[in-house]
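Course assignment 3, question 2. Fill in each field.
Student: A.L.
Task: Predict the tertiary structure for the chain below.
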Amino acid sequence: MSRPSVLAFSGSLRQGSLNQKLVKLAARGAAKSGADVRVIDLADFLLPIFDEDVESRGTPAEAVSLKAMMKAADGMLIASPEYNSSLSGALKNAVDWASRKAEGESALEAFSGKAVAVMAASPSPVGGLRGLMHLRQILSHIQMHVLPGQMTLCHADEAFDDAGELKDPKLGANAEKLGRTLAEYLKRHPS
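Answer field:
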């Protein structure tokens, strides 16, 4: 059986992002379970705000590149910051660009039928939970299989050490478990 491929990223563009730290821990769990994991940073993709007028002049190369990575992955790990009780504009914009049907593609080819595990890290006492509700709705609508388990990390601004590890080993184990769960699901349900 081939190793499942996982694309891991957060919806934050900020250097030192709490969500990028969290998704890296989940990615480590997926790798330990035998997945080929690619961790990317959305800040490396300079995407304009989705606009059909921009698209009509040609899809930006950065959007094409990001979509290709999503299409190549069997599943995804996504950590979403919570902005005003929802997901970040950067994450929504990335999904909007990747959801566009290019010539010769089937609809929602980067997402349809793929499994995804979601998580959030926030300084708030609810850990980004409200934003995950919106993210789950969007991902389900674009035909992804959103795994039932998730992780919300409350008071995340105090939760990580200088090396990017969670100070509480139980929380670190939970993050890795989320990645393992995705990897094991992908092994049982190959695409």
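Instructor remarks: The mean pLDDT is 96. Helices lie at 18-32, 52-56, 61-72, 89-98, 129-141, 169-188.
Grade: pending
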